């Protein structure tokens, strides 16, 4: 699908979509909960749907979404097909693999798209230490595992991703019969672990966090025989693009975001403040409008998903913006450092990569161009936001990539006044 974005001034009120980070963790917790879980405000992105498919294959049953509520009933891990497919969700594969390994049955773990080439070496390294038999395709999918996982004191490297630690914490929480510890070195994306611990606590698990270096897991107790209700909060990751759009192209109001959230991408507020966008933060809404934007220096090591919206923002900031944490981008849906450099280069923005730094030269306007998402949802959204004040139309190929995390993105932009044209299976206009 090709999307044409025409320059436009935006304004309006948008309700944030559901957080896929919280939704997927809630699905995992619901699977482990031996009883009924009611998820309020469930997400509907491709990653969310993949998580629901995984827990279905691992034995949970899900009723139809009624009145924005999803009911999940589980009796624990009871695989029904011997295979689970995580779609293109990096969190899904890393979180659900240790959870699936609680079963004594052999399970084949697979995925699709870019997930097939992303490294999964940590399974080969860690799983045998937990009593899990594992066969991988040279560190890639598909992976065959056979449990059960035996919780034991273990040390892992958290430099590549915090997502595997999320899976271990949840699996340990369910299976631990005595106190066990997970020791972590070089942990990145700490706010995502805060979200994991928040969800686990809601479902009755006891984990003590010792400065993100050691996690002490205690045997769990069932909270109640009554259904557990969990409300999925608004998504800061998707909303970051809308907030940046407001700073670039007109005042916008976003509702449904928790300013006290543990989500890592809440840090977008700091970036918007540093570049001197006009911003008002209230209890129930955030309002952002254009200011005399200036370059800023931002460390995105713990929130690497912010790189795309930050680049769109920096493109309109006078001077050279410096963003730290480029090493976190190599194994996303695309190699995002190079992809951002390539696609924003087509719009006339010079981006330099220097070791762990990205330098964005902004403030000179953006050109009409034809860009490609590289099947990366965040690249598609970043290009769309940047196009709002380009000097002409910007065409985005493979624009449907947004469905991975934010299927309503274009509709929300249109609601705010953006001029968007969808051109399915048609050649680009000349």
Describe the fold and architecture.
The protein has 430 residues and is α/β, with parallel strands linked by helices. The protein has two domains: 2-17 and 234-423, Alpha-beta prism (UDP-n-acetylglucosamine1-carboxyvinyl-transferase, Chain), CATH 3.65.10.10; 20-231, Enolpyruvate transferase domain (UDP-n-acetylglucosamine1-carboxyvinyl-transferase, Chain). The chain is 29% helix and 26% strand. It contains twelve helices and 24 strands. It has helices at 20-32, 46-57, 90-100, 121-126, 163-175, 190-202, 236-249, 268-274, 307-314, 336-346, 377-386, 409-415, and strands at 2-6, 12-15, 35-40, 61-62, 69-74, 83-85, 106-110, 133-137, 140-146, 154-157, 180-185, 206-210, 214-218, 228-231, 252-255, 278-281, 285-289, 297-299, 319-324, 350-354, 357-362, 369-372, 394-397, 419-423. The strands form six sheets. It has a four-stranded mixed sheet. It has a four-stranded mixed sheet with strand order 2-15-17-16. Strands 4-5-3-14 form a four-stranded mixed sheet, with helices on one face. Strand 6 (83-85), helix 3 and strand 7 (106-110) form a beta-alpha-beta unit. Helix 1 packs parallel to helix 3 (90-100), helix 3 packs parallel to helix 5 (163-175) and helix 7 runs parallel beside helix 11. The longest helix has 14 residues, at 236-249. The protein is globular, with a radius of gyration of 21 Å. Residues 426-430 have low confidence and may be disordered.
- Main sheet characteristics: 4 strands, mixed
What is the molecular shape?
Answer: globular
Tally of extended strands?
Answer: 24
Domain count, please report it.
2
How far apart lie the N and C ends?
17 Å
Q: Approximately how much beta-strand content do the residues carry?
A: 25-35%
**CATH superfamily label of the largest domain:** Enolpyruvate transferase domain
Contiguous runs where pLDDT drops below 50 for at least 5 residues: 426-430
CATH level 1 class label of the largest domain: Alpha Beta
How many helices does DSSP assign?
Answer: 12
What is the name of the CATH topology of the largest domain? UDP-n-acetylglucosamine1-carboxyvinyl-transferase, Chain
Mean pLDDT across all residues, rounded? 94
| CA gyration radius, whole angstroms | 21 Å
Q: What is the CATH architecture term of the largest domain?
A: Alpha-beta prism
Structural class call reads: alpha/beta
Spatial arrangement of strands, main beta sheet: 22-23-1-24
Helix fraction bin: 25-40%
């Amino acid at each position: 699908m090709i999307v044409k974005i025409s320059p436009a001034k935006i304004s309006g009120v948008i309700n944030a979509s559901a957080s896929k980070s919280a939704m997927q963790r809630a699905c995992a917790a619901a699977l482990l909960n031996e009883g009924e879980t009611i998820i309020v405000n469930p997400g509907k992105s491709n990653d969310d749907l993949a998580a629901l498919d995984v827990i279905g294959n691992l034995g949970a049953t899900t009723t139809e979404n009624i009145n924005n509520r999803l009911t999940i009933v589980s009796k624990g891990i009871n695989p029904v097909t011997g295979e689970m497919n995580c779609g293109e969700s990096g969190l899904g594969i890393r979180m659900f693999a240790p959870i699936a390994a609680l079963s004594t049955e052999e399970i084949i773990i697979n995925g699709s798209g870019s997930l097939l080439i992303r490294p999964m070496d940590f399974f080969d390294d860690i799983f045998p230490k937990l009593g899990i038999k594992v066969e991988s395709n040279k560190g890639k999918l598909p992976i065959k595992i056979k449990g059960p996982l035996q919780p034991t004191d273990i040390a892992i490297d958290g430099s590549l991703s915090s997502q595997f630690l999320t899976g271990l914490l949840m699996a340990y929480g369910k299976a631990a019969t005595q106190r066990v510890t997970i020791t972590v070195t070089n942990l990145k994306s700490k706010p995502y672990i805060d979200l994991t611990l928040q969800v686990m606590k809601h479902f009755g698990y006891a984990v003590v966090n010792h400065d993100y270096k050691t996690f002490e897991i205690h045997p769990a107790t069932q909270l109640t025989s009554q259904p557990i209700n969990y409300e999925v909060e608004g998504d800061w990751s998707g909303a970051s693009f809308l907030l940046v759009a407001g700073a670039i192209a007109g005042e916008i109001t976003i509702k449904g975001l928790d300013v006290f959230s543990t989500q890592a991408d809440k840090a977008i507020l700091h970036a918007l403040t540093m570049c001197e966008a006009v911003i008002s933060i209230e209890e129930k809404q955030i309002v952002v409008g254009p200011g005399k934007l200036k370059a800023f220096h931002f460390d995105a090591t713990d929130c690497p998903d912010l790189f795309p919206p930050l680049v769109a923002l920096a493109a309109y900031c006078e001077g050279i913006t410096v963003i730290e944490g480029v090493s976190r981008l190599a194994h996303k849906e695309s190699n995002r450092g190079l992809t951002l450099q390539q696609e924003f280069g087509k719009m006339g923005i010079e981006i330099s990569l220097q070791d762990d730094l990205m330098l964005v030269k902004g403030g000179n306007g953006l050109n009409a161009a034809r860009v490609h998402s590289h099947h990366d949802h965040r690249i598609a959204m970043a290009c769309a936001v940047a196009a709002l004040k380009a000097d002409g139309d910007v065409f985005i190929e493979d624009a449907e990539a947004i469905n991975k995390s934010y299927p309503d993105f274009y509709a929300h932009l249109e609601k705010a006044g953006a001029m968007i044209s969808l051109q399915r299976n048609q050649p680009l206009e000349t």
